[in-house]
Amino acid sequence: MMNKVSETLGRLGGVNLLPLALAAVAFVLIGAPSSWVTLTVAGLSMGMMVFLMASGLSLVFGLMDVLNFGHSAFISFGAFVAATVLAALSTWLDGGWMLASAALALALLAAIAFGLAAGLFFETVIIRPVYRDHLRQILITMGALIVSEQIILAVWGGTPVSVPRPAFLEGAWIVGDVSMEIYRLFAVGLGAAVFVGLMVLLNRTRIGLLIRAGVENREMVEALGFKINRLFIGVFMLGSALAALGGAMWAGYETLITPALGGEMMIVVFIVVIIGGLGSIEGTLLGAIIVGLTANYIGYLAPKLALASNMILMMAILMWRPSGLRPAVK
Amino acid sequence: MTLLSLQNMKTQIGQYHVLHDVTFDVPQGGVFVLLGRNGAGKTTTLRSIMGLWQPQPGSVMFKGQDISRLATADIARLGIAYVPENMGIFGGLTVEENLVLATAKGRFDQTRLQRIYTLFPALEKFWTKQAWSLSGGQKQMLAVARAIIEPRDLILIDEPTKGLAPSIVAAMGEAFREIAQDTTILLVEQNFNFARSLGRDMAVVDDGRVVHRGSMADFAADTDLQGQLLGLSA
């Protein structure tokens, strides 16, 4: 009987149904449909931004077996670089849809470019000497994180920095009783676009094939004649750029950022990577959406449990599936 | 003509000296078999040739070139393929993706592909299946197919019959005979009957040293020596 239920659920989508199940349970508990829609959109948008930050870390973890605690530095730098560009182009933000879009695109591109450059530096100077040595990886990446936070403090100061938003992303769409923040919908759209792009990269290109193979068995990829170190650099840069993009999006969401932003997000990012399954982009998306929805639903239903909700979620999922929801095959 | 020559190869893994003195020549063509008890150093020998463990400089010559300091990827590009004991297939990739990854330009030479279909019909049948869903024998077929999807001079194969059903072992033997017509195989094998049916030349490794070299026909005829070196009883 249980096997039949399990098989049927598997055919219908298996663990991919979890966000739907979560939303259905929350719908019953919340009672008010309009609040439920608002919370669901907020949860999806938070999930998508966390997905941007976490997807690179998951690939780096899975492919390179590197515990990079400095990943949050890319998130923080992405946020501050984007905020700086937006502030410098503040006149564009009020200058009509085209100019505001250009300013936003430039800010996001600047964060991505910074992430790529910082990733190249980080991989070649900091990570490469400590491959296959987890203890040293933790120590050196923690050290790099502290240095990065001090650089942010030195450049941008310790007072919170405000992040201007383009006018067209301000406000909310009201449909009946339901209110949906436009910025959150934009974050959902951007996250979905990045997910599709990553899936195309991983499943439709030779580089993607190499990354997927490398996540499973690095040694065999080398034995087939591929220089895995070059792949490592590329993936690390991609992961850093995605983290910076996620940080930039989070900055626009928060509108007031401090140097501690990356560190604060890192706990959630690690939870997402762990419950999603190392090295799996689909798992990271699934984990991020579940974490985003849970945080918002619990925040509404039981605010006192909000801080603990992600940890409880992680423990529950790891007891059920110790390798995470959708790990890359090892 | 010698294709691969190991001269006093020593390999250290961490603080342990695993190979102390491995010396043998693999002639071009046919199947060369490396025999030995568990833990003798056979797998380490293959991994050292492939650069996955770093052997002593100057101890591995392939087609007259010292490859002992080359990176694994560079060794592979010289024309050496490796089929590890655990087969090393990528379970999350389909059969097709496993094979296309091993091609030099990302596309198949149809003649070679047809040869693989002929040798291993199951791979054509399960072309779009993810490799983790294959049986043990099919996974081994895929691992060997991946090694021959491009022309190679030498294939290192580590215990390909381990855990396989007799019918699959027989099919694998037929495939190796066919492959050995144009590619040299260096085979590590515990199944002596399988090794004997394929090998032309052989060596025995014990405690990280080569303790015997010669023709397989002579070794197969000497049951005392088999008992002494491999623990086989007549």
UniProtKB/TrEMBL annotation, chain B:
Q: State the UniProt keywords alphabetically.
A: Amino-acid transport, ATP-binding, Nucleotide-binding, Transport
Supply one GO molecular-function term.
ATP binding
Which Gene3D superfamilies does the record associate with it?
P-loop containing nucleotide triphosphate hydrolases (3.40.50.300)
Q: Tell me the ranges covered by the ABC transporter domain, including all copies.
A: 4-232
PROSITE patterns, alphabetized: ABC_TRANSPORTER_1, ABC_TRANSPORTER_2
Q: Which InterPro entries match?
A: AAA+_ATPase (IPR003593), ABC_transporter-like_ATP-bd (IPR003439), ABC_transporter-like_CS (IPR017871), BCAA_Transport_ATP-bd_LivF (IPR052156), P-loop_NTPase (IPR027417)
Task: Tell me its family.
Answer: Belongs to the ABC transporter superfamily.
What name does the UniProt record give this protein?
ABC transporter ATP-binding protein
Taxonomic lineage: Bacteria, Pseudomonadati, Pseudomonadota, Alphaproteobacteria, Rhodobacterales
